[in-house]
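Take a look at the protein record below and tell me what you see:
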Amino acid sequence: MSAPLGIDHVQLAMPEGGEDRARAFYTDLLGMREVAKPSNLSTAGCWFECGALQLHLGVDPDFRPACKAHPALLVGDLAEFRARLAQAGAIVREDKPIAGYHRCFTEDPFGNRIELMQKL
């Protein structure tokens, strides 16, 4: 029996009309690049990528932020991300250490939990 080969993308939800706030957070603050969604999909929502990482935000009419479930994004310089987030007024939360990583949590503009991790 074969097993999955990897993760193609992670999708988070956002409320209707949140595309500009998503772009400001994921492109301007986190440094990801917005990519066009396929034309046969809804125009609502937006997709971002950075290298092999793809993160999609889809509109959910009954939106509730993901407060526990979250993507963990690997970064090269966690201190830089912490400073950038703090300067923008974003939440930065420390958490229990995990061997081999420095890490923290933040939230996107909709309250979705995002973990940032740097390998030691």
In short: Helices lie at 19-29, 78-87.
